[in-house]
Amino acid sequence: MRQNGRVAPIDASARSPYVTLTRAEWAELADSTPLPLTEQDIQRVRGVADPISLEEVDQVYRPLSRLLDLHSESTGYLHRETSEFLGERASRTPFVIGIAGSVAVGKSTTARVLRELMARWPGSPRVELVTTDGFLLPNAELEARGLMTRKGFPESYDRRALRRFVADVKSGLPEVTAPVYSHITYDIVPDEHVVVRRPDILIVEGLNVLAPPVLREPGTPAFALSDYFDVSIYVDAQPEDVRRWYIDRFLTLRTTAFSRPDSYFRHYAELTDEQAVARASQIWDTINAPNLARNIAPTRSRATIILTKGADHAIESVRLRKL
Q: Among 19, 230, 237, 236, which Cα is nearest to 118's?
């Protein structure tokens, strides 16, 4: 475009693959969708030190649920039309949603709230939520590989098993199992599994679910976990805010989960406030911050939807990948 004989500069937002809506703009979309959740529902799914409110669910997650519903409906329509075109009679496979973000950013709460909302869609779909924690390598294996201080980094997971699990669910297998992880014992629970039986919707939540494929030998096919996602969400915030939220959560856990006799972290329950803040800060600065900077934040641009939080933990804007 020319202005006064000169080529006008292109607006940076026009070059972006995303369209950004403020919270107020996004909230205006909520009127077309009923809110089936109550304050009691929110208290049940709220994460530790995550102050999500019914108002935020109303203004942010209600229209987000409707948008995901539209994506699912469109995918179903495309499946039917494609099957008819190819002369197939294959049943529709599950609609898979990936949710990524830093430790302590609130992605687990996001996943649980969306599960509650989507389970109340017309037709009462079966919604399953699986976290990637179950695919962490057992502590004994992490110790043997020298990875205990890198728990949560991509190499600390059984990535092949995780990818195979999602691929099996996506392919429509009647029953697929996933390992169970305990945040109390800080380890995989032996001989315990989650069983997923042909859900309508599968939510996969974890730190590295949007990581690119690991390239092996030249010419060998490489698949990323996100290749099986229909929609992906990244929960974003400034690192300094997430650091503060992590420390706040650590202090809360010190007087709750950490104080349990069977807790892996029970020795933290005896720390003073000053000692607890110092220890939480050290863990963040040496483990979680590097993992966020090197492995998690770089995957943000791979997401379909980005939820950006402000310093008060509330979502300030929603970015949608342009179609």
A: 230
Sign of the four-CA dihedral 248, 250, 252, 255: negative
Q: For residue 89, how many C-alpha atoms fall within 13 Å in the half-sphere facing its CB?
A: 0
DSSP annotation of 157? B
pLDDT, residue 48, reads: 62
Kindly report, residue by residue over 223-273, the tens digit of the pLDDT: 899 999 999 999 999 999 999 999 999 999 998 999 999 999 999 999 999
CATH topology for 2-81+89-124+206-212+231-321 is Rossmann fold (3.40.50)
Give residue limits of the domains in the chain: 2-81+89-124+206-212+231-321
Surface-to-core class of residue 147, CB atoms within 10 Å of its CB (0-12 exposed, 13-18 middle, 19+ buried): middle
Q: Which residues contact 116 (CB under 8 A, 6 or more apart)?
A: 37, 41, 45
pTM: 0.89
Query: Sign of torsion, CA 214 218 220 222?
Result: positive
Task: Please tell me whether residue 2 adopts helix, strand or coil conformation.
Answer: strand
Instruction: State how far the Cα of 9 lies from the Cα of 1, in Å rounded to an integer.
Output: 8
Distance CA 232, CA 305 (A): 6
Contact between 213 and 194 under an 8 Å Cβ cutoff? The reply is: no
